[in-house]
């Protein structure tokens, strides 16, 4: 018996996941439905490599609504455990999870919205997917650090009764890249201006179309909220203190004007960097969950050369769990963005559901 | 329904596991049997905090043999999924896993012997615990890096079709401690003699009673073999190249004589260290699985200051998985020894079995 997978959202990540499943000839997973925002396609047999053409051109494709898509999965669910995989970043799709779960579907997603938005939605999801035997399953490893084993490790710590003292990390590949390059103790590195690093990151496609959507810390805040909630804290956008590093006067400009004016603030960032370097430290943009002091935040902080955050490279993510059992923290680092590693996290999650529904 | 757990070996790790289960009032796990090398105790109800006294004094305790212990678990297995937890480091117990698995027990263990010894035993175990629906389950997270999510992450990479290019790490808390202290680029650190670091590590209880059992690399080799096998390689003691750093003339001495003579080789280690430091590098004792070149080894190697292995602290373990999807490696680090974190790995493994047998 296989687990059927119905995918909403077939952009880079959704497509890569299907490619990985096809390439590995998985005996445990069959992709039986795909949907974009306009139409969807369901199939009684596993979809093949031609799924994209079929979805776009097939006369079998139907107009997409969440309700019509869900209704079309009734036959799948009657035969096999069925996972809805949400590869959108859409809030409306996230709000639909309770409906899927109550109808007996499992949910897997890299979409952060359900876990970092409205707290009542999150609680409703946890209430239905409550871990009781037979209850539907929700996995969202790829919402933080893509495929890095972050959420599953945190769940293992919590479920075995460890006490979390602190969760601290660099959760944005973009901001990792920017500060790893801007702020370094490596004397052989060529000094660069902050605006230049941002502009290179933008050209490399590492930033959002408007880099202020990275620099304002909102994406990192979402990850802090997710980690905090998994750790049992009722975090919301209101209770996480976010240091927006976009200079105030640049916040209301057009995206183009912002990039043009950013160099005027190079001195500001250079000053911060100089103060750090003079103390043998580097600047890193970090998210913090602090259950002990009840303070969770996103800040531009300093770390000494010997700290693992200081030697981070490229656009890697890093996360450190300090707990009762791990006073010297359990640290996980590596690539935390990109289709291949995000799809890996999704694939692992779905295999866990396959294993849990087939024993 | 709970998962019943029958424990063979109730030393530090076994006792700590029971303490964690009792402290967390687990609703998923019931410890129903405990055994030491002399006797065992089974109970129709979950064992309580008085288990140790009961095992030692109870008239219900019976003489231990693997067969009699197993026979006494028939009632448990008839009622609930039952895990045999091997907390010994015994080879004979490891050789019994196929018998347990063929009788329908699941196996969880931090005992390295079955996974790093006789290859035919390993293959037999994998043949029975083959992942098919209904097949018995084997989890051994704590055989490498204690509770660090090493084996489960490697399994996730493999099961989703990633290609492992290299697995490299510091897998011995003892050798981590010794070289983190002996070889450092931190100019403010007081220089120490190699024999002194070994002797301090011994006094702290970090080493085996005879430190040569750490310095000979055999324990690290076992971990390399385990990781290699999980990654699909047929590694054995014969195919892993191990650099025994115990000077040859000290190998046949008594343990006492060894400690007395080791200072005569301080110059040898100091010379190695000086060569590294002059090149901006440090010495680290690492295990390597290299599927690409078919070379797996344990060696005293050098790493530059910017490498994550160079900034390791205390007795932490670290492991780096370089794969097709993670060309910049996925790295996990933290405490890799001690009862609390080893029991954490065991507890997580058993919860996974609980989840897989109760859906």
Automatic annotation (TrEMBL), chains A, B:
Superkingdom of origin organism: Eukaryota
GO molecular function: homoserine dehydrogenase activity; NADP binding
GO terms, biological process: homoserine biosynthetic process; methionine biosynthetic process; threonine biosynthetic process
Enzyme Commission number(s) from the entry: 1.1.1.3
Key word Oxidoreductase present: yes
Positions with a binding annotation for NADPH: 88, 112
Keyword NADP in annotation: yes
Domain Homoserine dehydrogenase catalytic, chain residue ranges per copy: 149-351
Keywords, comma-separated and alphabetical: Amino-acid biosynthesis, Methionine biosynthesis, NADP, Oxidoreductase, Threonine biosynthesis
Necessary cofactors: a metal cation
Catalysed reactions, as listed in the record: L-homoserine + NADP(+) = L-aspartate 4-semialdehyde + NADPH + H(+)
Binding-site positions, NADP(+): 9-14
Active site (catalytic residues): 223
EC category name: oxidoreductase
Pathway: Amino-acid biosynthesis; L-methionine biosynthesis via de novo pathway; L-homoserine from L-aspartate: step 3/3; Amino-acid biosynthesis; L-threonine biosynthesis; L-threonine from L-aspartate: step 3/5
UniProt xrefs under SUPFAM superfamilies: Glyceraldehyde-3-phosphate dehydrogenase-like, C-terminal domain, NAD(P)-binding Rossmann-fold domains
Residue numbers binding L-homoserine: 208
Residue span(s) of domain Aspartate/homoserine dehydrogenase NAD-binding: 9-130
Family: Belongs to the homoserine dehydrogenase family.
Function: Catalyzes the conversion of L-aspartate-beta-semialdehyde (L-Asa) to L-homoserine (L-Hse), the third step in the biosynthesis of amino acids that derive from aspartate (the aspartate family of amino acids), including methioinine and threonine, the latter of which is a precursor to isoleucine; production of homoserine leads to a branch-point in the pathway as it can either be O-phosphorylated for processing to threonine, or O-acylated for processing to methionine.
PANTHER family to which the protein is assigned, alphabetical: HOMOSERINE DEHYDROGENASE, PTHR43070
Protein name in the entry: Homoserine dehydrogenase
Organism whose genome encodes this protein: Linnemannia hyalina
